[in-house]
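Table S2 (text version). Query chain:
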Amino acid sequence: LSWNEASLPAVFPPVRLEINDSEGHPSSSHQTLKGTSKWATSLENLLEDPEGVKRFREFLKKEFSEENVLFWLACEEFKKTQGKKQMQEKAKEIYMTFLSSKASSQVNVEGQSRLNETILETPHPLMFQKLQDQIFNLMKYDSYSRFLKSEIFLNHKKSEEQEENSPEAQTAAKRASRIYNT
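Corresponding structure-token output:
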């Protein structure tokens, strides 16, 4: 069985919060953040953006800890895996790549949290969750804050700002403003 929102009982409907502005219209301020501005709000936002993941990987590679984000991404992908055979194959791949003592890209997780190879025979979507959470917290409280101060992040932010302030971007914004304010 795989878990998804549809399998939840009706007593737990999805929660959707709507924030309104002073005039009662739905606020879109949270939607206007993009790129580096959005990445700077949380590691979660950074990891939801393919460009953010690319830049974060670039940074982690320089810090010799790219395996952390690769493991986190592999676990996210693993959760979506359907079928026992595919899950066994992916679980073994994750184990051999990141968790085994002979792993090529071993992640630094607490020793007692290491999985035993026998668990790979009966995989389930959340079998790596505790380890994934450890790595997420390691990234969140260690490398993420350094990433936000890194040349990679700051240069990308600067290039975004230059694009936004370019004459072409301003002209397009003025055209859009005229269209919506008529």
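Notes on Table S2: The longest helix spans residues 129-147. The mean pLDDT is 80.
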